[in-house]
Amino acid sequence: MRFTSYLSMLLLVAMLPLTFPAVAHAAEDDDLDVLQDKLTNEWRLVRNDRLRNIKTWVKQEDGKRFRSFKAEAALDGTVEAYVRVLLDFDNYRKWYWEVLDARILKKKSDTEYYFYIKHRAPHGVPNRDVPGVLTLEPQTRDNRTLVVRVKAYPDLIPEEPPLVRMKAEDMTIRISPLAGNRVFVEAEGYVDPGGRVPGWANNFIQRAAPYSILVGFQRMMDYKAYLEDKTPLPFPVFNTP
Question: Which residues are within 8 A (CB) of 90 and not within 5 positions of it... i.e. 6 or more apart?
């Protein structure tokens, strides 16, 4: 009887990682959890991938519920390819963070789009959705930096329970051409998933999402479908510095 009980306990322990994958996520983010009380409104480097030329930071701003993030990357590709990927909402599931659905609600102009995104949440946490507005400030001959602003507007469309409406998925992205068909990307933003969310889950997302998105964007810009697309873009694009 004792042996049977001992064996049952071993089987239960062995199955824990399969039954509760969230435990693995929590463990992965333990280093940042330890630093939680030490985070200030100064940027703290959390990832430096020299192979992919990607860096990410976090900070805890006064008056904000969660951490803000910042990322920088030098990616292979052109500004034109970047814009084609960015405006192709139907394929956001292939590269953006845990997307279940993404679509344009309304094209207000060539540089302003109302959008809707549904995100898959970590295990045990309700999925999220967010409507918002994406605006672009095109390059000029004198200023070769393309500026993209994303702003969540939770009340833009009615909520759809059991999805939890995000309060913020806000960011500013600056894309500048580099020599040799490369781009320099600078992104800074803040995400509030809304509702109740475990600290480990939000910390894991804020740590992993900016890096994952940049890696995914690099992969998408390599696709011939974007590199060889000759469809006219809605505004002028400059691929050289």
Answer: 102, 103
Domain ranges for the chain, please list them. Answer: 77-227
Structure tokens at 37: 């009380």
3-state SS, residue 83: helix
Question: Which two three-digit tokens encode residue 188?
Answer: 């800074």
Task: Copy the structure tokens of residue 168.
Answer: 């913020």
What lies within 8 Å, CB to CB, of 64 at 6+ separation is 190, 192
Query: DSSP label at 122?
Result: P
Cβ-contact 169, 150 below 8 angstroms: yes
| Closest-CA residue to 79 (of 183, 193, 154) | 183
Beta strand 99-109 with 168-178: parallel, antiparallel or unpaired?
A: unpaired
Q: Phi and psi at residue 221, in whole multiples of 5°?
A: -70, -15
The pLDDT assigned to 9 comes to: 38
Phi and psi angles of residue 13, each rounded to the nearest 5 degrees, phi first: -65, -40
* 129-155 per-position pLDDT tens digit: 999 999 999 999 999 999 999 999 999
Query: Is 60 exceeded by the pLDDT of residue 170?
Result: yes
Residue 157 has pLDDT above 50, yes or no: yes
In 3D space, the residue among 57, 46, 73, 102 whose CA is nearest the CA of residue 219 turns out to be 73
Structure token pair of residue 179? 């020599």
Residue 56: closest CA among 218, 206, 201: 206
User: How many CA atoms are closer than 13 Å to the CA of 234, on its beta-carbon side?
Assistant: 16
What CATH number has the domain spanning 77-227? 3.30.530.20
Cα–Cα distance, 26 to 35 (Å, whole number): 14
Decide if 172 contacts 184 (C-beta within 8 A).
no
Q: How many Å apart are CA 77 and CA 160, to the nearest integer?
A: 38
